[in-house]
Write a structure and sequence with these properties.
This protein is mostly helical and about 140 residues long. About 50% of the residues lie in helices and about 10% in strands. The chain is built from five helices and three strands. The chain has helices spanning about 15-20, 30-45, 50-60, 90-105, 115-135, and strands at about 65-70, 75, 80-85. The chain has a three-stranded antiparallel beta sheet. The longest helix is centred in the last third of the chain and has 23 residues, at about 115-135. It is globular. It starts with 13 loop residues before the first helix and ends with a helix. The model is unreliable at about 1-10 and about 130-135 (pLDDT under 50).
């Protein structure tokens, strides 16, 4: 990551944003450093603090978060459905990716939530097979 690069240029495509930040390379593959950070975070997310990471991703109070495992996995924020994921592995991957992107994109909080979701989705497409295999 170059500190002189603007990592939050909203005129970039999601892939350009990720390349500029050093998250993926020019072949759209996660860089070794980013993958290592993500795998470290994924291990933490899968621990006892899963709801804490999910709450951070949803920008809500941890006490309000409930994860209902099933098909699909449903995350509740109090009495409303905050989101659905195809598997617990996908939820964990997204929570770890969100946390990693907060670190790699210093202006993450200024990126509109729809664009944040797009960036996370783009990255999960690269990581999906790995997350399902690691969950087993």
């Amino acid at each position: 990551m170059s500190d002189t690069q603007d990592r939050s240029d909203h005129n970039n495509t999601p892939w350009e944003t990720l390349i500029t930040a050093g998250v993926v390379d020019s072949r759209y593959q996660p860089t070794p450093t980013f993958r290592s950070d993500w795998e470290r975070l994924l291990t933490r997310v899968r621990g006892a603090d899963r709801t804490a990471y999910v709450a951070m991703m949803l920008e809500t109070n941890q006490a309000n978060v409930t994860v209902e495992t099933g098909d699909p996995v449903i995350v509740m924020d109090g009495t409303w459905i905050a989101g659905e994921w195809p598997s617990i592995a996908a939820l964990d991957a997204d929570a770890a990716l969100c946390t990693a992107l907060q670190q790699w994109l210093p202006k993450w909080e200024t990126i509109p939530s729809a664009e944040q979701r797009t960036l996370i989705t783009h990255l999960r497409t690269l990581m999906d097979g790995r997350t399902e295999a690691q969950q087993r």
